[in-house]
Amino acid sequence: MRLAAGLAVVFVIGGLAVLLDLLLGGDLGPGETILPEATVAAGGDGPRAPTAIDPVEKARFNADVEEAQEETPLLVAGIVVDGTGRPVLGAHLYVSVNTGPRQRPWKVVASIQTKVDGKFSVRRATPAAEVQVQAGKPGWISRQRTVVTPGAGDVHIELTKTGELTGRLLLPRDAGAASVTVMVLRLPNGETTSLGKVTGDGPHEYLWSAANVPPGLKLAVYVSATGSNEGLHREEGFMVSPGTRETVPTIDLRALELCDVSVVDEESRPLCDAWVMLEDENARGTFEYWQVDTQGRFRRLAKKGVRDVMVGARSRRPQTFPAFGTHRVVLKRGPIVRFRVENVGDLPLAKRPIELLVLRSATDLFDRNDTDPKRAQNRLSSLQRWGMAHGSRTILVDDRGEAVAHLDTPGLYSVSMRVGAASARQKTIPLMKPTVRVQGHEGEQLIGLRADRTALARALEDK
């Protein structure tokens, strides 16, 4: 028994030694090879799955793969270099194609990186009309997108190191850096190339920096209160060299005014859907619209000349107050109106959808302290165009001929009726009195309407 146990241990140790020798790179003897073991698929036949690969078979397989790749048509190939002509390692390339002159946008078919030699190559069997190559790398920029014909093998893309612009910004005290944005624009077309990051460095002093700025171009520094097209300040004529950091002279905006508004409901909860309208006194009837943030707050720097601020929300009564300063606005719910079409009788109203379009009357938007009708008409047009609270309300009429509208303010409204789905076949039904007055008292109001019964009946039967 002891002899048998000892022999078993010797065989186990010997087997492990041979296995370790093979795993650690032991040489095979002349004519020896590792034969792959195989299993038979269920049913007695089928492909065999090798558990080890013959080096000769592996080399043959790799050669077949390379040959298959070479047979695939070349889409585009080339090299990415820097300004001195040296290859750029790790450049990101996006290769896009279109199959015809009308196909837009471009479809990305490959995303690759260059290696040590800076070269790239993409093959694709599907034909294409044009090939576009975009190259970039953090801290580098390509002058333009390269568009070539399929099969181009000598595409040369040059990357240039970007620069950085920095500066100092003075704002009104307590304005907050979040209320401004610094943009670096390329002249003369004004294309945005970089956004500056603004950080506080004192009660009203801020530092800003814009990275990845294209070098060698005439640039403008543009300061905006919200990142919009309305600028608070603009300076031109700056340039950066590749890989350099340039400083812009101090920009002093302390003469601007701050509008700080918090909008809540009757229970002091923030109204996140509220909007703010600013009216420019210097441009008659010119308005700007902004949404409050998720806390119901609006903070904005503005030039002198903004006359009033109107704040509102859907189905709530708007308020108007002087533009500048800090305001806490409580918006109360607007009037609720139940419209009833009184002469429908036994008409099958449920047969087709019926809508009432309720719109604030232009004649009711005149400022009583302002005799300028153009300003009021511009206000109405702007509000309707932007779809804000004084815009239209579309409500469905039920089978009893009633529809409920949650309006913003009391006053004059024009009402129209439309039958049918929202399409070219929708028909407008005349109303006897298309203008109604909504009162400002609490609770639901009932307003009767009378439609052209004959036209309504025809529209309901129309297919």
Reading off the top of the CATH hierarchy, the class of the largest domain is best stated as Mainly Beta
Class by SSE composition: mainly beta
Overall mean confidence score, pLDDT: 76
| Residue runs with pLDDT of under 50 for 5 or more positions | 7-51
So what's the oligomer here? single chain
The CATH architecture name of the largest domain reads: Sandwich
The CATH topology assignment of the largest domain is Immunoglobulin-like
Main sheet properties: 7 strands, mixed
Estimated radius of gyration = 37 Å
Distance between the termini: 101 Å
Work out the number of β strands. Answer: 30
Strand content: 35-45%
Kindly give the count of domains.
4
Query: What characteristic shape results from the CA principal axes?
Result: flat
Name the descriptors.
463 residues; Immunoglobulin-like; five-stranded antiparallel β-sheet; 30 strands; seven-stranded mixed β-sheet; 13% helix; 4 domains
Account of the 3D structure:
With 463 residues, the chain is mainly β. The chain folds into four domains: 93 residues, Immunoglobulin-like (Sandwich), CATH 2.60.40; 90 residues, Immunoglobulins (Immunoglobulin-like, Sandwich); 74 residues, Immunoglobulin-like (Sandwich); 126 residues, Immunoglobulin-like (Sandwich), CATH 2.60.40. It contains four helices and 30 strands. The protein has a seven-stranded mixed β-sheet with strand order 14-13-10-11-12-9-15, with no helix packed on it. A hairpin with a 4-residue loop joins β11 and β12. The protein is flat and about 90 Å long.
